[in-house]
């Protein structure tokens, strides 16, 4: 276990928002359980960043934007395969707010993503075209922050994509599994864990 991770690392809190917690529009099972764990972690990390899904109404990734499309079905768009989601985290609505129990006091920066109407954004670093940056990599590099740890929602989508992109951008990345929860669509969690390990992300089964 990398016990010194909190001393020199940056915690990236991914999408701990009302719509991803029980009762929300795209609820992750037991998603609210990460809140207390993340609060404990963020109080110990030297630096903390949070991401926030921030979609316009009618976003192209919403099933409601496509005639006769069912939520969680998959279509092909110009940038690749896209899972169609229930409408969620619409900018300015209560569902897009951070979970009320999440302590934002230690957070240095909030990265909003998914605000472009025609492209989804799972990763904290890139839109789903894999090339349009959010600006997070530049922020981290300018501050000399190279060792990153990820927690939040959901393990198999936004958390995993963020951690793998961190490695792709030249950062060291760990995913803190106890402080994450997954959607797990048709085995997506198992596939994500395999992809994380294959990409060089450290998958931590215990918290630092």
Automatic annotation (TrEMBL):
Organism per entry: Methylobrevis pamukkalensis
- Name-wise, this protein is Nicotinamidase
User: By its UniProt entry, which InterPro entries does this protein fall under?
Assistant: Isochorismatase-like_dom, Isochorismatase-like_sf, Isochorismatase_Nicotinamidase
Tell me the protein family, please: Belongs to the isochorismatase family.
EC number(s)? 3.5.1.19
Q: Which domain of life is it from?
A: Bacteria
Keywords for the protein's UniProt record, in alphabetical order: Hydrolase, Metal-binding, Pyridine nucleotide biosynthesis
Pinpoint the Isochorismatase-like domain residues. 11-204
Q: What biological-process terms (Gene Ontology) are attached?
A: pyridine nucleotide biosynthetic process
Name the Gene Ontology molecular function terms of this record.
Answer: metal ion binding; nicotinamidase activity
Judged by the first EC level, this protein's enzyme class is hydrolase
Q: Which Pfam families match?
A: Isochorismatase
Which pathway, per its entry? Cofactor biosynthesis; nicotinate biosynthesis; nicotinate from nicotinamide: step 1/1
Q: Which NCBIfam families match?
A: PRK11609.1
């Amino acid at each position: 276990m990398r016990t010194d991770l909190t001393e020199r690392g940056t915690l990236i809190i991914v999408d701990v928002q009302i719509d991803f917690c029980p009762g929300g529009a795209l609820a992750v099972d037991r998603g609210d359980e990460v809140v207390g764990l993340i609060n404990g972690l963020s109080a110990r990390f030297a630096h903390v960043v949070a991401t926030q899904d921030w979609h316009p109404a009618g976003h192209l990734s919403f099933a409601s934007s496509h005639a006769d499309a069912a939520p969680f079905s998959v279509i092909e768009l110009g940038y690749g395969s896209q899972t169609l989601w229930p409408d969620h985290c619409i900018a300015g609505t209560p569902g897009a707010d951070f979970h009320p129990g999440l302590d934002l006091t230690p957070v240095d920066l909030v990265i909003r993503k998914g605000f472009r109407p025609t492209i989804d954004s799972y990763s904290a670093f890139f839109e789903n075209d894999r090339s349009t940056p959010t600006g997070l990599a530049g922020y981290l590099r300018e501050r000399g922050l190279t060792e990153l740890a990820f927690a939040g929602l959901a393990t198999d989508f936004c958390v995993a994509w963020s951690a793998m992109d961190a490695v792709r951008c030249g950062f060291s990345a760990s995913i803190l599994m106890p402080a994450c929860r997954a959607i797990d669509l048709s085995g997506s969690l198992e596939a994500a864990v395999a992809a994380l390990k294959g990409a060089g992300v450290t998958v931590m089964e215990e918290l630092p």
